[in-house]
Amino acid sequence: MLKHFLKLRYLVVIIVFFTFINSLILIFLAAKRSFHGYGIVFFGYESEKPAPVEILESIDLFLIGLVFLIFSMGLTKLFLGKLIENGNDEDLPKWLRIKNFLELKMLLWQTILVSLVIFFVDQLFEKNDEMSWNLLIIPTAILMLSISMAVINKFENLK
């Protein structure tokens, strides 16, 4: 029974493939938005949004694309690592040497937190004239996620 169940791990290939494609599309869209922001600054392109907002939104898209890329690489390493490589982590950057699912979650968590911070700054630029209390939801979420991550890190280091 377990032998048949372990064959399901090959479904991860489908997840990894589409997650990787999603990351490439997001990176392409971010580059397109960046070029549009540069066009506003240097060539006077018309836009509904000012150039800093366009560029901040492109950074946000780059970070979300990075989250998808890290997720696909992490899943590949965790589920398919023994099948596609000989277990050599020396070629990978230190932050990408993922050994278990918790490390992948923490890496994704950190990337999402950075993305939320960029999104909040983007919202500050975009809604400069019409600030409301609703804008405080994002920093509150950032604070709660950061505290949660710190608590989990503390308990993991105690083990």
TrEMBL record:
InterPro entries named in the record: UPF0114
Membrane-crossing segments per the record: 12-31, 61-80, 101-121, 133-152
This protein's record includes keyword Magnesium: no
UniProt KW Cell membrane keyword: no
Alphabetical keyword list: Membrane, Transmembrane, Transmembrane helix
The protein's name: YqhA family protein
Originating organism: Christiangramia lutea
